[in-house]
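[SOLVED] Need 3D model of a two-part complex

Original post:
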Amino acid sequence: MLKNYFKIAIAVLKRRKFFTFISLFGISFTLTILMVLAAFIHKVVGDDYPDTKRSRSLFVTELQETGMSQGGMSSASGAPSYWFLNKYAATLKSPEKVTLFSSSRGTNTYVNNKKIALYYKYTDATYWDVLDYEFLEGKPFTAQQVLNGEPVTVISDDIRKEYFGSEGSVVGKYIEADNVRYRVCGVVKSFPIISYMLYSDIYLPFTVSKTSYNDRSYRGNYNAILLGRSSGDLERMHDEFESVVKKLPTSDKVYQNLYCHAKTYLEAYADMGNEGKSGVNFAIIVVSIFTLIVMLLPTLNLININITRIMERSSEIGVRKAFGASSSTLAYQFIVENIILTLLGGLIACVFSFIIMKLLNSSGLIHHLDLSLNWFVLLIGLGIALVFGLLSGVYPAWRMSKLHVVTALREQ
Amino acid sequence: MIQLKNVKKVYRTATVETLALSDITLNVERGEFLSIMGPSGCGKSTLLNIMGLLDAPTNGEIRIDEEKTDRLSDKQLANFRNRKLGFIFQNYHLINDLKVLDNVELPLLYRGGVPIKRSKLASEALFKVGLSNRMKHFPTQLSGGQKQRVAIARAIVGNPEIILADEPTGNLDSSMGNEVMEILLNLNKNEGTTIVMVTHDENMARKTHRLVRLFDGAQVQ
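Solution:
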């Protein structure tokens, strides 16, 4: 049966080449956009360098306080301070390790009168244990160096090339940022800025920070990663941190509520800084709406083309009904044929997506972007092609199946 | 085999009501070869379509092989047609995108079964109509007579008890028409298939067991 449907589907595609071109173009163009988007999302939320232990990590990146005062609703949100995290996150019992690190900040440095924009980040020494940075040369700074406030730094491979050129080893050399000279102790492999929580060009011990990292306010510029021994520790770490935060007073009388959670990477990545709104749900809604909008026009176009094609096939429909096809069998046949068409469009989309991903990767728009046509993207593509096939096939199939057999036979 | 009792068919549009068949009562015996004649528009094809359960009467009752057919669902009707009935049309109604063998296999697709068996039965049916050498051709590569023989093979492949033929020789010259008629006569004689044939050709009609004439939707003979 399926072989017969396949033969018919291919024959119908060959019959009106212009219609086929329009249909396949619409399908493959739409699927290409969505597959590239899927690859991008996978890159953002997937388990990736240098954050390979994401499945057993929780992230504390946001602290919000809210309250009602005479002037109305008060709310303040932002990253927690080093002091807050050091006091309430770093002291937790359930994590195997806890690292504290600042958000990346931008500054400029100069080499041979050339301005180089770079990002810097303050970290503790545990940072290098919790995350799996690949050291191309040298090693991370030590806990003792952090304690001593030594002006040492780990730099990215990108900044090594930009700052030092293509000369040999740079370990032991100095790099200047914000008028301070730091001795390079290690060089790590670069990664794209979309991993914004960890991205930086130079990593410095938090003790060399010019601003006081021990300022006893709740909000600041730091994040924490709580690393469990296994993914089974996530719930325990989460609950322990929740119970600690629950007991804390707010930082000011104008606030009555304090919110600070240990979240999974995805939750933390999509965090909107608003306790009442789930960033993950918001992201899912936005992506779904975008997908629907992108799919809407080609779906309507395909429905129109399908209806035209069905009318050309009324004799066949009549014959099939006469010889024993029920309306539901015919509807099924047409949906299968349409899914064959959309899967064919999906195959073309795979080729287009591969080319576009290669172009994006090499364009330099986002450094070290490494989009790939992996199983996740292929599965998403297959799923969307099937949904596309169903959406654009159901109504024409219903129209087809409802054609009266005598009328259909008369139409030839 | 086929019993029609007080069958009436009215086609209605918003402004016009057309009586296509009025009060037809007719019995077709098992193994009978019946021909239906009459001027164009007298209701011959409508009667055949109603006998073939392709169309429903406005009033009246149809029994095929003692089974009442008016309460059958779409699925049951499809299954009934598939097992009991074979159709031959004046315009052949072959699917041009499928090869001759695939066209003949069509009724068997809706019965399930293994593809090899379907293919074997279709080959046998094509052998019966003398078209074994055209199995891999497409319908557009065949003459009118050959197309009608493919249509006959398609009608008989499922071994139905009844064949309904709507002007099967209408588009053929006399020599090809006679060839097709011979096949139908042999089917009736050798296999005992009940055949009802609509025709305009007196000579063809004379070769059948019985002739029914219609005029303005009514049976006149």
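Edit: The first strand of chain B starts at residue 2 and ends at 12.
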